[in-house]
Amino acid sequence: MPIHRDTLLQALDALLQPERFKDYGPNGLQVEGKAQIARIVSGVTASRALIDAAIAQQADAIFVHHGLFWRGQDGRVTGWMKQRLQRLLTHDISLYAYHLPLDAHPELGNNARLGALLGWQADARFGEQDLGCVASADYGNAQLLAQHVQQVLGRGTTLVAPEDAKPIRRVAWCSGGAQGYFEAAMAAGADAFITGEISEPQAHLARESGVAFIAAGHHATERYGAPAVAAHVAAQLGLEHRFIDIDNPA
């Protein structure tokens, strides 16, 4: 049976607790569609391709990690923003987006699901708002760890490692664009840090600190939380759900 869009919002808010986070954009219902929802599509980013796929699936709502609105962006509804909003409004589709709350959920979030996929159970947290995870591991060196990450995620990685091939006994990870957490990962006792992207300073820090840095792709590390949360809430509320993965090389 269909439910009201506010019922879905309440279930998502209760699960993800967005009020706990200082975020870069609004969490929750970003675009209001029809009142009754029976079918939900989940994805990583509210791109035009995902919206078009949701329209083809006759979805009533879309649930994503990366929504449409961010702090400091140009507020004009032109170009790509107009095209995305026009599709949502024309087809009366609600858009729900949760950023840091979706990263942080201890069981269904991006970091929890990424860790589970890679075979790690976090035993400590680190970084801003405790988004980063740390776990025990056993790899002969950083190259072997990078190969494991690449094999599991199905895409190439960028590895910057110190000259010595020391064993990896503690791994830290934080999905997406968390390269700024590298020093916090070092302070947490990590021998290697996995995230989505690398910036120029981290290459030098990895070589000089003895802690390896693995960039495994922003999209590749953040495509697990949205379907996990959407499937959980859909089962709870009796909704149809489908995850649509729009590939992204970033």
Oligomer: single chain
* Structural domains: how many: 2
Per the principal axes of the C-alpha atoms, what is the gross shape?
Answer: elongated
Task: State mean pLDDT (0 to 100 scale).
Answer: 97
Proportion in β-strands: 15-25%
Under the CATH scheme, the architecture of the largest domain is: 3-Layer(aba) Sandwich
Q: Determine the structural class based on helices, strands and strand pairing.
A: alpha/beta
User: Helices and strands, in N-to-C order?
Assistant: EHEEEHEHEHHEEHEEHEHEHHE
Radius of gyration: 19 Å
Strands ordered across the widest β-sheet: 7-8-10-11-12-9
In CATH's first tier, which class of the largest domain applies? Answer: Alpha Beta
State the end-to-end CA separation.
Answer: 38 Å
Helix content: 25-40%
Output the number of helix runs: 10
Strand runs, count: 13
CATH homologous superfamily grouping of the largest domain: NIF3 (NGG1p interacting factor 3)-like
Compose a concise summary of this entry.
With 250 residues, this protein is of the alpha/beta class. Helix content is 37%, strand content 23%.
